[in-house]
Model the fold of this input.
Amino acid sequence: MMVLRQVAGALVILLSCALIGCGGGDDRPRPFGKIDAERRGLPALYLTIDGREVTSSRDKGIVINRGDIAWPAYTCTNPDCPGEKPQLFIWPDPMFSVKEDGSLGDRSFHSAEEWEDAMREMGGHLQPTCPACLPQRNLETESDKQKQQYSDWVQLYVLPKTEERLRELDEERLRRQEYIDHRVGSQ
Done:
């Protein structure tokens, strides 16, 4: 009788482990929140005005590096871009500066026009613009369709390792959604 109870107890333990995933590892995909947190923390390329490269997590926006602002790197995907491949550049915003203590400072503008004037004063454009493509464009006569096409060609640059990991995380996110759909459908 004692042996039968021990065997029955062992079977209950084995069955419980099989049902809750004991011992064999948890094959459930991570929750969306953890996947998304990893996405935000992946490395991104930032550039200072003088072209120094800084790598930091993608969720930083802008980074202070040795007293200079490092801005997110953009790239041009125009198939006829005369620049290097990849053509990397920044879009600095006059709203931000580095204070004397090395921290990030910001400037307030009372209107969009005031911000646009400050942007033009610093030689910038109202949206990210590829500096290599700019000489071949005529901004005065360009159609709205052409302007939109050049705008569409400008993308945030994604480091190759980050791009690969993002694809893996997209697949993991899909597996998580399939897991949830299966669990919901089986109830």
In short: The CA atoms of residues 77 and 153 lie 5 Å apart. Helices lie at 2-20, 32-41, 112-121, 144-153, 160-185. Strands lie at 43-48, 53-57, 63-65, 68-72, 74-76, 88-89, 96-98, 104-106, 154-156.
